[in-house]
Specification:
Order of helices and strands: EEHEHEHEHHEHEHEHEHEHH
CATH class: Alpha Beta
CATH topology: TIM Barrel
Shape: globular
Strand order of the largest sheet: 1-4-5-6-7-8-9-10
Length: 290
């Protein structure tokens, strides 16, 4: 699938269900009408693409996505792969790295769940806080194999921004094209030097928990992005919202999907970021990667 002109939210979940492990129904996002209303609002603000990084075992629902596309006109790209422990389906433990990679390759080349909808992205694949478990390592290796076979980009999850450098080590050992890798949630570190080290390795980094000020204040995110752009590195950064709870939706009292457009980008402009730099982080970089 191709990206349409306009802005892309590269790290979102049209549906996601982490409620079983977390024992919290707020983590089961399946609010079709509310999400559709927000996607229509995004469309009116030139957001025309959503990359859904919900994958195997955490509530990916192709029928739901197709219905959402029809209802809203949003262009939605789908993903393959496995998230992180303790959210893996049984097959991650039962199958070999090669078998897991074949499952991903099939979803990329043939289609997902007996549909003609093919996965465009491998992700989000994750590591735990400050470590990678053996099962997570298996998924990273399998994902690397699938990437080398297909060329499809990889989106990772870092728990609170940690372990990105170690993720890159695994990718390098398999010959992954780091220009096609997005290391997510780096804004949760608040650590400029760490983020610059990731960029220096050749990957793309994502500020994709924007508005979640219970983790880090947006002022810090603005300051970090201002310095990254001052160094001429806007071509290595992407931005998204990563809505993962019902309570994140506007109708539930949350910030909603359009917060990035309505609240955060104006703060970047006030801080002196140029339209070209903002376009890189919302339009151009993801087009290059996809």
């Amino acid at each position: 699938m191709k990206l349409k002109d306009g802005i892309t939210f590269h790290h979102e979940h049209v549906t996601i269900d982490l409620s079983g492990v977390k024992k919290n129904d707020d983590c089961n996002v399946n609010c079709f009408d509310e999400t559709a209303t927000e996607f229509k609002e995004l469309k009116s603000k030139n957001v025309n693409n959503i990359i859904d990084v919900t994958n195997r075992g955490i509530g990916r629902n192709i029928e739901y996505i197709l219905k959402m596309e029809k209802e809203t006109g949003m262009n939605i790209l789908c993903s393959t792969g496995y998230y992180k422990e303790p959210f893996f389906p049984k097959e991650v433990y039962d199958l070999s790295e090669k078998e897991l990679s074949k499952t991903m390759i099939k979803e990329i080349t043939c289609g997902i769940e007996n549909t003609e909808i093919k996965a465009d992205v491998i992700g989000e694949i994750g590591t735990s806080k400050d470590k990678i478990t053996e099962s997570e390592k298996k998924v990273f290796k399998a994902s690397s194999m699938a990437h080398v076979e297909t060329g499809n980009p990889i989106v990772t999850h870092t728990t609170l921004g940690t372990f990105g450098l170690e993720q890159i080590e695994i990718f390098n050992s398999y010959g992954v094209n780091l220009d096609k890798v997005i290391i997510s949630h780096v804004d949760l570190t608040g650590d400029l030097e760490y983020i610059l080290r990731l960029i220096d390795k050749g990957v793309n980094v994502a500020f994709d928990t924007i508005g979640k000020e219970n983790y880090k204040p947006d002022k810090l995110r603005v300051d970090l992005l201002k310095e990254i752009c001052r160094r001429g590195l806007s071509e290595r950064v992407l931005m998204s919202m990563d809505i993962t709870r019902k309570s994140n939706l506007k109708t539930r009292g949350g910030i909603g999907y359009s917060y990035l457009i309505d609240n955060f980008i104006p703060k970047l402009k006030e801080a002196g970021l140029t339209s070209k730099e903002i376009d890189n982080m919302t339009k151009n970089n993801i087009r290059r990667i996809i």
